[in-house]
Design brief:
Layout (H helix, E strand, L loop, with lengths): L11 H15 L5 E2 L15 H21 L1 H24 L2 E2 L12 H12 L9 H16 L8 H17 L5 H34 L1
Helix pairs in contact: 1-3, 2-3, 2-5, 2-6, 3-5, 3-7, 5-6, 5-7
């Protein structure tokens, strides 16, 4: 386990899920509504549910690759997720928020709207500001930009494009307000800087010890 100490960072995920489950139980009806007038101009489009749900694979696959191929990158990636996601839950507990944008009933009946209905049932309309979907997408793009080896750097642009598409999908399936995305951008930038700074400092200390 000393050689694989980065495996412990996997525990960040269940820790976040527990915190999120608690927040979902606490923040139910009495919340501040996240909304901008621009939300009314964005039509509901169920087909954006496919990039929306692709977020899960978008986050898990790079994480698994780094777990086995890039331990240092995995530590930074999971630290980003831990700080970004858990701080979001803490903010939602301090400042309960939600959105009232979901169409009811859904305007059409097809596989995409069926999938939207399943997502609505699994994930409430509370704890939306800032958007975890955006923060997670930024985490993948940021880590890819920083950690991809030279022969794979061509993946940077597609990764960023996918992160943007996933972020945009949240407002078209009415899971988030535009305000949630706008709040998540500076949140993500700050989280990326903090998480990298933590590990850069730790790496510097280890290097000094080796020299001594």
């Amino acid at each position: 386990m000393k050689r694989r100490s980065h495996y412990w960072y996997v525990l960040i995920l269940p820790a976040y899920l527990i915190l999120f489950a608690i927040a979902e139980k606490i923040v139910v009806t009495d919340y501040w509504v996240s909304y901008l007038p621009l939300d009314d101009r964005i039509p509901f489009c169920e087909w954006f549910i496919f990039p929306y749900v692709s977020w899960y694979a978008f986050m898990v696959v790079p994480g698994l690759i780094m777990l086995f191929k890039d331990p240092e990158g995995f530590k930074r990636y999971m630290t980003f997720i831990g700080i970004g996601f858990c701080s979001t839950v803490a903010f939602c507990l301090i400042f309960p928020n939600g959105q009232d944008l979901r169409p009811n009933p859904l305007p059409r009946d097809n596989f995409a709207t069926w999938l939207v209905a399943r997502i609505y049932a699994a994930d409430t309309n509370t704890n939306v500001l800032p958007s975890v979907h955006v923060i997670g997408s930024y985490a993948v793009a940021y880590t890819a930009w920083k950690r991809l080896p030279e022969k794979w750097r061509w993946l940077r642009v597609p990764t960023i494009a996918m992160a943007v598409l996933i972020s945009v999908s949240t407002v078209f399936v009415k899971q988030h307000s535009v305000l949630d995305i706008l709040a998540a951008v500076p949140w993500s930038i700050a989280t990326g800087w903090i998480s990298w700074r933590i590990h850069d400092s730790a790496l510097t200390r280890r290097t000094k010890k080796c020299i001594i």
